[in-house]
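Tokens help. Our protein:
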Amino acid sequence: MPQVTVFTRPLQYPLGWPNVKANEKGIDVQLALDMAVMAHRKEYDVAILMSLDTDLRPAIESVADLARAWGKPRAEVAAWSMPNQQCRRLSLPGKRTIYCHWISEQTYQTLRDNTSYS
């Protein structure tokens, strides 16, 4: 039984492509909805989000609020870790801390999914 279900959204190719980046529409909204709704349904214990997209902060905040009320689920983030370089991570404003899993390239290679979903 698969532990991961992949959902894709169609790419939109603007005039000027390939010199102009194609846009995948709606996947960030779907991710935020899944994270928040599944938390309310208590369908997971920990959500780990690897993104720098600040549009996803409300979903993390929603899960963090539930964790304060119920003790779980927890929202955590993951980010790249590179030697001798300050890496960015998604965080919550104010004093609200969120755990970050720092991922090295070596670790990434062990997690990498080479499946073509096209």
